[in-house]
Amino acid sequence: MLEELKQIVYEANMDLPKYGLVTFTWGNVSAIDREKGYFVIKPSGVDYDKLKPEDMVVMDLEGNKVEGKYNPSSDTATHLELYKAFPNIGGVVHTHSPWATSWAQAGRGIPCYGTTHADYMYGEIPCARCLEGKEFDEYEKNTGLLIVETFKEKDYEAVPAVLCKNHGPFTWGKNAHEAVHNAVVLEEVAKMAARCEMINPEVKPAPQDLQDKHYYRKHGANAYYGQN
Amino acid sequence: MLEELKQIVYEANMDLPKYGLVTFTWGNVSAIDREKGYFVIKPSGVDYDKLKPEDMVVMDLEGNKVEGKYNPSSDTATHLELYKAFPNIGGVVHTHSPWATSWAQAGRGIPCYGTTHADYMYGEIPCARCLEGKEFDEYEKNTGLLIVETFKEKDYEAVPAVLCKNHGPFTWGKNAHEAVHNAVVLEEVAKMAARCEMINPEVKPAPQDLQDKHYYRKHGANAYYGQN
Amino acid sequence: MLEELKQIVYEANMDLPKYGLVTFTWGNVSAIDREKGYFVIKPSGVDYDKLKPEDMVVMDLEGNKVEGKYNPSSDTATHLELYKAFPNIGGVVHTHSPWATSWAQAGRGIPCYGTTHADYMYGEIPCARCLEGKEFDEYEKNTGLLIVETFKEKDYEAVPAVLCKNHGPFTWGKNAHEAVHNAVVLEEVAKMAARCEMINPEVKPAPQDLQDKHYYRKHGANAYYGQN
Amino acid sequence: MLEELKQIVYEANMDLPKYGLVTFTWGNVSAIDREKGYFVIKPSGVDYDKLKPEDMVVMDLEGNKVEGKYNPSSDTATHLELYKAFPNIGGVVHTHSPWATSWAQAGRGIPCYGTTHADYMYGEIPCARCLEGKEFDEYEKNTGLLIVETFKEKDYEAVPAVLCKNHGPFTWGKNAHEAVHNAVVLEEVAKMAARCEMINPEVKPAPQDLQDKHYYRKHGANAYYGQN
């Protein structure tokens, strides 16, 4: 069942340690089959070097396990809310990648300081507030709902990443591969923004017209980066 | 004698350079056989790339060498005091891993800034004071006793790590493997906490209910992370 | 056509990930055949691990593609302006290498703090201002013209590197290999300058006579470094 | 001639890139045969991946090349002065290792903040002033003489390292291997001291009795670290 998607999700998960984004099991990738209404996600707490494509867990959009011998990632309910609220995404990634997590712990969104950021994400990468009180009762679900709320007036396709305060980042994309790609970009951008502020504590975000130029060089009808 | 435990301790020691926690011989792992009352530890100053399982040294809980051609680690007396005072631990690790050591040199405990920390350690990781005066006469033993004193009103199972001021970290766990795992976690947490303060010098520790949520997601009767 | 130069440019491009200067496709190298009046450049957005020598694109100095199945790098117009204005250069490199990019985002030139810098670059590495307004209409061309303007009163052979504000670095050299070499030097120098200021916020640039001594130890008629 | 020492010096030079201490050719190791009065040093500007044992250059203590097809390292005159002034050393290392060089550029000695430092170096690692004026006429020789002057009231065996302001570090030891070992220690210590000050800007050096304890645990008649 969904063997091809399991293979894709397996490979996308294996890319996390390859790109230095995870220590131990601190990350997970999922991808959705919109037609069937199922998504495939990494099992919870299984070591990357023991992971196999057939270990991936199939879930439906009510949060029921459809297939798989393992429990799904403990963050499954967060992925689920993102798939429900963001209709154009096909993959979701969660990591504790160190620079992005440091910004999340610091409780700050990442300002757009340059074109590396602007090429992929349009404007500041927001930091969602910490959950509180009763929201912890359904922690992972409410994390997802909070991310959705954070994007109420933002374009989730133009900014495919969020920081959850005191926790870490989630990224997404049109498929699992692009979601992982965005997780790598986020970590690089987070690193350079922190160092940039160290080098110049008075630094201001990049001018808006530079942000526009670089974002639209790669996105939209007039894009001219790459081979398309 | 204790061949299986020697193999385990050997492998746990070899994990230290694998995870980037040691330069040269700056680290050691031990593990205890509680029934027999013996513990097995790395020999002192032997290069990791020459280390063999049979080089491990067997000690009793009075600090006598029971078997082994080499001298035990110079930190053996510290390990011994931890085994005596903390009845539920099975393994101890000492390293000079760079971020944790930087906090130890700075003389500060590591505040809990996020869930990466809270998933493994409950609250601040304490920094024990520096020894002084006559305490240096039995330096390694007194280092152990000082760690024990530091945990007089703390739960050593909920916080399996300590920083020794001007020195470096010790971690422990229910066995050697878990103690090494906690040493890796500590280094990641130390790195992210330092960067977090760089990004936001006014940062506050994570809210208590987030710390509770994440710690109990992985520990205790209601844990639901992983496959158990 | 220009098969040898394509091979050289291919290898120089492959050196970028080897030296840790690029993530994904965030960089490009070109080299010029001054006699023929053509230059060879990496295709746009092609993954490094799929790149082949024959994928390189041949351009003339009016910006026309002369040969190649792919689109040239989106930064081609910048390379072109540098070749036209700097007659003694044979290769150009653009990257988003993280430390140099952090300085570019910070909007600061890199002061010469020591001999590592002085051995290769004579004085501060300048940071060109950000483009603005109508300059974005021909963004890449104007980036090149702005770099040229920045060197109006500077010796482009003595300082073979520039930072473009909110963007990243360009370096050059007498051929592609030397341009890549200078990109590596720039990243090391950028890293050490940032850390140097962290260690001593009051630090001043190296004395002028030290800068002279080291630069002329390697350059000019009295050079005595190396085997020539 | 001196084939065994050439092999040793070759291997010690190859350890520099292995330990991440050099970029390109930015480092050199030498070792002396005190009986014969000759020392062996890396040739100038030869790539590490092309270096062979027979490329090493043999020098006498008047600075004459005794054997070798290449020019000796441009820093040879500095090594020479150290061999003449420090009778118990057998090897010398120069690198531009990034953390130690950042301290040198910052113009600060490295305070002893902990036992990693104290295990190898007794007290602050000094930063020699920058050369000036006529001293640049015999730059490398005067660098050596300045290091010697810096140790006029310090024990060069207890502190086997120095930073040259605006330049970088030199280390030494009883042979080439130990000199390289000390270069690795210096880089680790420099890294942790910088981060330590970042974590606690008010940090003070480690108490003197801790420094004594750790230094004498490894050095002198009562040493008990290791297998001797």
UniProtKB/TrEMBL annotation, chains A, B, C, D:
GO cellular component: cytosol
Known catalytic reactions: L-ribulose 5-phosphate = D-xylulose 5-phosphate
InterPro entries cross-referenced by the UniProt entry: Aldolase_class_II_sugar_metab, Aldolase_II/adducin_N, Aldolase_II/adducin_N_sf
Molecular function terms from GO: aldehyde-lyase activity; L-ribulose-phosphate 4-epimerase activity; metal ion binding
Superkingdom of origin: Bacteria
Chain ranges of the Class II aldolase/adducin N-terminal domain: 7-194
Family in the record: Belongs to the aldolase class II family. AraD/FucA subfamily.
Name this protein carries in UniProt: L-ribulose-5-phosphate 4-epimerase
Taxonomic source organism: Sellimonas catena
Lineage of origin: Bacteria, Bacillati, Bacillota, Clostridia, Lachnospirales
